[in-house]
Amino acid sequence: xxxxxxxxxxxxxxxxxxxxxxxxxxxxxxxxxxxxxxxxxxxxxxxxxxxxxxxxxxxxxxxxxxxxxxxxxxxxxxxxxxxxxxxxxxxxxxxxxxxxxxxxxxxxxxxxxxxxxxxxxxxxxxxxxxxxxxxxxxxxxxxxxxxxxxxxxxxxxxxxxxxxxxxxxxxxxxxxxxxxxxxxxxxxxxxxxxxxxxxxxxxxxxxxxxxxxxxxxxxxxxxxxxxxxxxxxxxxxxxxxxxxxxxxxxxxxxxxxxxxxxxxxxxxxxxxxxxxxxxxxxxxxxxxxxxxxxxxxxxxxxxxxxxxxxxxxxxxxxxxxxxxxxxxxxxxxxxxxxxxxxxxxxxxxxxxxxxxxxxxxxxxxxxxxxxxxxxxxxxxxxxxxxxxxxxxxxxxxxxxxxxxxxxxxxxxxxxxxxxxxxxxxxxxxxxxxxxxxxxxxxxxxxxxxxxxxxx
Length: 455
Prior knowledge:
Elements: H1 6-19, E1 24-40, E2 43-61, E3 64-70, H2 75-91, H3 115-118, H4 122-138, E4 141-158, E5 163-179, E6 185-192, H5 200-214, E7 228-229, H6 231-242, H7 247-251, E8 277-279, E9 301-305, E10 308-309, H8 321-326, E11 347-348, E12 408-409, E13 423-429, E14 432-438, E15 450-451
Parallel strand pairs: 7-15
Antiparallel strand pairs: 1-2, 1-4, 2-3, 4-5, 5-6, 8-9, 8-11, 9-10, 12-13, 13-14
C-alpha cells in the first residue's frame, strides 16, 4: 500500500476531511518504497527495502492548531487520528503567526517520476555493487559505497477544496575508493531521477583515478591559492548560501542580504554583473514538485538579475502587507505572489562570457577540461587537477551536456571554436535543484588544488 494511486489517495483524504469538526482541516498522505545496498572493504555488507505510508492531519480552531499522524487507514483509525488532532488543537495556545489553509490552487505537473528507477530490483543493486567492487579489486584498491533508490508519492487536500497529487523517483549513489596503504582517496557521487543514466562500471573509474593520483600528493607552501571545487564540493557551499535567500531573515537582520539600518538588499548589486539566477521548477532533467511547502504553486521567476538581487523566498505570513511594512521591505513590483512568495525550487544560471574574453583564453596557470571528450566515457566526472604550464594551449573540445536530477555538471559551448570552459552545478535547494555557473575573470595563481568532497 506504500504507493497509492491518485484515486486511492483522494478517497482517504476525502474521508478525513468529512470527519473533521474543526474550523478547517488539511490532510496529507505520503508513501515510499526505498531500496538500498551498502558495500565496504570490497564486500557487500547490508541491503534492504523499506516501505511506508503516513497520513498527517492538521486542524485549526481559530488560531489554535493541532497535528496528528498515523499509518493505518481503516475508518476507525482515520476517525481516531482526526479526533486526536482536534483534541491537541483545543489544548494549544493561539499561534500569532497562524495562516489559514490556502484556497483551491492549479498546479502544472512536472515529470518527477521515472519508470526505470521505480523498476529497480535487488539484482540491479547487487550488480551496481559488483560493478563498483570489481574494477577496484583488479587494481588493488578498496571500495566502500552506498546505493539508495526509491519511488514515492505525495497527496494533500484541505477543507477549502485544494488538492494535489504527484509521484517521484530518486537514485543516489556514492562511493569512496582508497589505496591499500591508505595514502590515496577518491570519491564519486551520482544523484539522479532516471536510473538508465547511471553506469557504475564507468563512474567508479572517477573515484579510482582520484585515489591513485592523490597517493602522490605534494605539499603546497602556505599562501593564497585559487581553488576550483568539484561539483559536489561546491554544491554544499552554494546550497548553504541559498538557504539565506529568505526575505524574513534578511528583513530581520539575520542574513548576508540584510541591509545596515534595516530592510534588505533587494534590487541592489550583490554579485558580479554576469550572474543571473532564476527559479525554474520544470527545467529539463531537474524537475521538482510543482508546489512549495505551503501548497502554493511554484513559478518561474528571477532571483538574481545582472548581479542584482531580484527575489527572495517569503512565506505567506511574512508576505502580508502589514508584516512587510513592519520590516520596511523594499519590494519590486510584480515580483511577489499575492499571498506570499513560494519557496525557490530549481535555480538556473545561464552561462555568459567576459567582455574582453580574457578569462576564456589559454593560461598556463589555469586548465579546466570539458566534462566529456572523445576518449572519455560518458558520464565521467569533470577532472580537475594540477597541470604543468606546457598543457595550457591544449584545446578543451566541445562539452556535451548531460542533465541529471540533482548534483551534476553541465558544460556547454555556443561556439565550438571558443575554448571557454564553464562550470554549471545543479544542487539541491529546498527540495529542488540549483544551477550555478562560474566563469572566472581573473587569472588563477600558480598551483591548483583539487576540490574534492569527502565521503
